[in-house]
Write a structure and sequence with these properties.
Mean pLDDT: 90
Bound molecules: zinc ion
Low-confidence stretches: none
Strand order of the largest sheet: 1-6-11-8
Radius of gyration: 23 Å
Distance between the termini: 59 Å
Number of domains: 2
Shape: elongated
Number of helices: 9
Structural class: alpha+beta
Largest sheet: 4 strands, antiparallel
Strand content: 15-25%
């Protein structure tokens, strides 16, 4: 029987190393308005762009950036394991939902009974929610030991428009860098396309707007100049240069992945993923400003 200790999301402050909750909409809004992220525990301030970049580029399998971004959860627990007996572990006892993608399970034996498992390598890729362990005694008189268990899983049931971004972060977390690029781009393309569709539907019929956004102003033109000019007119903060150039890099890399079979490094996947996260949040925060008050469209 697992004793659940707790579920955590968030990240450690780079200065005081105390745990900070995941980045919020308010933090993103402050970044777009030119303010720094401030640690809730100490006076440390950092550019949110730099902070998220460090989270996404973090290669440590026990502290993946997805947990800091609030897209994945770390669950901790412990259980007794008896020597020469089988034990079935079911992660639902730690609150892991059945539909969650479990990406990592780490077990640390507390004494001389070692958990033997059929699956010794739990990365990369989803691992089973239930598995059996055999208690192997490492000392003649050892009969029972407490085993600590840590499990990292991606949260199901998030906002459907967030799904491509979650898929991109999950691919990157599992070191499938090439597979991260297309969903990262789709996340921004879909979000931007939907925001512009809502905006232009106030001025033209569905067919005209569809054709305009599919054949006329394709993704590159939607990013620049459409998004820039519209957001400037309604008084939203300007898309920062580092995000704009990251999104342009994302477009280029997406086309290369789609048309050329080339390997993508962790660094280039992380760079475009960070841009996608900020691009998505920017549109999500300010898209409502593109809708006139009191109108319902044509
Ligand atoms: Zn701090």
């Amino acid at each position: 029987m697992i004793v659940a200790v707790g579920n955590y999301t968030g990240f450690a402050c780079p200065a005081c190393h105390r745990s900070s909750p995941p980045v919020t909409d308010e933090d993103y809004d402050a970044y777009f308005r030119g303010r720094h992220w401030t640690c809730p525990h100490c006076p440390h301030q950092s550019s949110l762009w730099k902070l998220i970049g460090e989270l996404v580029r973090n290669e440590h399998p026990l502290t993946p950036g997805a947990v800091g971004l609030g897209l994945a959860t770390t669950s901790l627990g412990h259980f007794p394991l008896r020597a020469d007996e089988w034990l079935t572990i079911d992660l639902s006892a730690m609150g892991v939902p059945p539909e969650a993608d479990v990406i990592s399970v780490v077990m640390t034996p507390g004494a001389a009974v070692f958990p033997l498992a059929h699956m010794q390598q739990t990365r990369p890729g989803p691992v089973p929610h239930a598995f059996s362990l055999f208690g192997k005694s490492l000392e003649l008189d050892a009969t029972e030991a407490i085993v600590n268990l840590m499990c990292i899983w991606f949260s199901p049931g998030q906002d459907p428009t967030l799904q491509p971004l979650v898929a991109a972060v999950e691919a990157c977390t599992n070191a499938r860098f090439r597979e991260a690029v297309v969903p990262a781009s789709v996340a921004v393309e879909d979000k931007l396309g939907a925001a512009l569709y809502m905006h232009y539907s106030q001025f033209a019929g569905r067919k005209t707007v569809d054709e305009f956004l599919s054949n006329g102003a394709t993704f590159g033109y939607q990013l620049n100049p459409l998004l820039r000019s519209l957001m400037a007119l309604v008084g939203a903060p300007e898309l920062p240069t580092e995000v704009a150039s990251g999104l342009s890099q994302l477009r280029t890399l997406r086309n290369k992945v789609a048309h050329e079979h080339r390997e993508i490094t962790r660094a280039s996947a992380a760079d475009v993923l960070v841009a996608a996260i900020f691009g998505y949040r920017y549109i999500s925060l300010y898209e409502s400003m593109l809708i006139r008050q009191g109108t319902s469209g044509l």
